[in-house]
Every structure is written in C-alpha cells, then in structure tokens.
Design a protein that fits this description.
alpha+beta; five-stranded antiparallel sheet; elongated
C-alpha cells in the first residue's frame, strides 16, 4: 500500500508539472526533463524519474501535512537539475492535492 501511495504521489506531482508546463509557466522551463512527458507512458515516466533520482539529477521531497482515513496531503519540493542550458537547481515548494491510497 505504501508503494502505491508513493507512485500516486509522484504521478500527482508529474501531472501538476505537466499542467504547469502546458500553461507556459516559467517554473516549468525544465528543458530535457520535459521530453519524458512526451515520450513515456506514466509507468515508464516513474521509472525514468527513479533513474534520474539515482543519478542525483532530480529529487522529490515531501512532508506529511494531514492524513484522513484513506488519503494524505503533503508539502513537497521538487529539485530539478537538467535544462537545455545546462545544469540548474530549481526548488518549488507546493502543497499537494489530496492523495488517495
């Protein structure tokens, strides 16, 4: 169940990032990272996310804010270090939507 919750959490973040990217937000000028959205299904996207994390190119950190029966809400920060212009470090703190598990 915990594994499923983590995957749902990652998907929520990735979906949020994709929406931000589609809306043209400068927060989502992630360069090469965005190609994962275009080329991969969600499951492959999660695998690639884990690979990037192992290479220390991306990190997702979260802290539990509130828990209700079968769902949680967390604060998270995303650190991404890949862009078309080189390696950068972006931190964007955000409160997640409710994550069901």
């Amino acid at each position: 169940m915990r594994e499923n919750m983590i995957n749902n959490f990652q998907r929520n973040i990735l979906n949020y990032l994709y929406l931000m990217y589609k809306s043209g937000s400068p927060v989502c000028e992630f360069g090469n990272f965005i190609t994962y959205f275009k080329e991969c299904s969600q499951d492959k996207l999660i695998k690639n996310l884990k690979k990037l994390s192992k290479m220390n190119l991306i990190q997702i950190q979260g802290d539990l804010v509130e828990k209700q029966l079968d769902k949680v809400q967390v604060n998270y920060s995303i650190f991404i270090k890949i862009t078309d212009y080189g390696i950068t470090n972006i931190e964007y703190p955000k409160k997640s939507p409710w994550i069901e598990f």
